[in-house]
Each structure stands twice: as C-alpha cells, then as structure tokens.
C-alpha cells in the first residue's frame, strides 16, 4: 500500500475534442479525467502533465470512443431503441 502523495502522469489524447463521425454520424465521446479529492472536491486531471494524487484521492479515467458511421435515423427503430436502452 502506498502512503503519502504520488506524482502521476496521464498521457491520453482526445480530451478536448471529440472523435468525428462519418457520413452524418454523431461524434464519439471525448476522454474524461478527474480526481475526487479526499476533501470532497473534484479536480480535472491535466493531460500529459504531472499532477499530485494524495492518499485518499481517487482517479477516474473515462475512455473516449470513436465516432459513429452513417445517419443513425436510417437504422431500424428497434436498433435505435436498443442503443438508447444500452446508453450507447
């Protein structure tokens, strides 16, 4: 178990721009990074820069996803409903 602060580096891309979709599709999700601090505050984690993670802090990384392909409204209503239920 680590005690005390540690210096971290999170080298992720696509944090400020979303991956684009193709042929009228929606863009993907941007990469998210935040730290829940032991004092209850939440801080955005910088990309490709060092930051300190203290004991009791938590780091959350939400991987970005690629953009879609094709107009989603051209899909069957059943497949659109399935995506909404699955929160894709």
SSE layout:
Blueprint: E1 6-9, E2 32-36, E3 42-44, E4 50-53, E5 58-62, H1 77-86
Antiparallel strand pairs: 1-4, 2-3, 2-5
Explain what this protein looks like in three dimensions.
- The chain has 88 residues and is α+β, with helices and mostly antiparallel strands.
- It has one domain (6-86).
- It has one helix and five strands, in the order βββββα.
- It has one helix at 77-86; strands at 6-9, 32-36, 42-44, 50-53, 58-62.
- The chain has a three-stranded antiparallel sheet, with no helix packed on it.
- Strand 2 (32-36) and strand 3 (42-44) form a beta hairpin.
- The protein is elongated.
- It starts with 5 loop residues before the first strand and ends with a helix.
Main sheet overview: 3 strands, antiparallel
The secondary structure category is alpha+beta
Total beta-strand segments: 5
Question: What gyration radius follows from the Cα positions, in whole Å?
Answer: 18 Å
Q: Roughly what fraction of the amino acids lie in strands?
A: 15-25%
- Name the average pLDDT: 79
Distance between the termini: 36 Å
Number of helices: 1
**Largest sheet strand order:** 3-2-5
Q: How helical, in percent, are the residues?
A: 10-25%
Along the chain, the helix and strand elements come as EEEEEH
Shape: elongated
- Whole-number total of structural domains: 1
Unreliable residue runs: none
Oligomer: single chain
């Amino acid at each position: 178990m680590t005690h005390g602060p540690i210096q971290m580096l999170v080298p992720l891309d696509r944090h400020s721009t979303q991956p684009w979709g193709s042929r009228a599709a929606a863009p993907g999700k941007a990469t998210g990074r935040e730290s829940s601090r032991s004092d209850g505050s939440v801080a955005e984690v910088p990309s490709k820069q060092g930051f300190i993670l203290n004991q009791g802090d938590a780091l959350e990384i939400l991987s970005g996803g690629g953009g879609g392909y094709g107009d989603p409204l051209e899909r069957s209503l059943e497949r659109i409903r399935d995506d909404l239920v699955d929160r894709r």
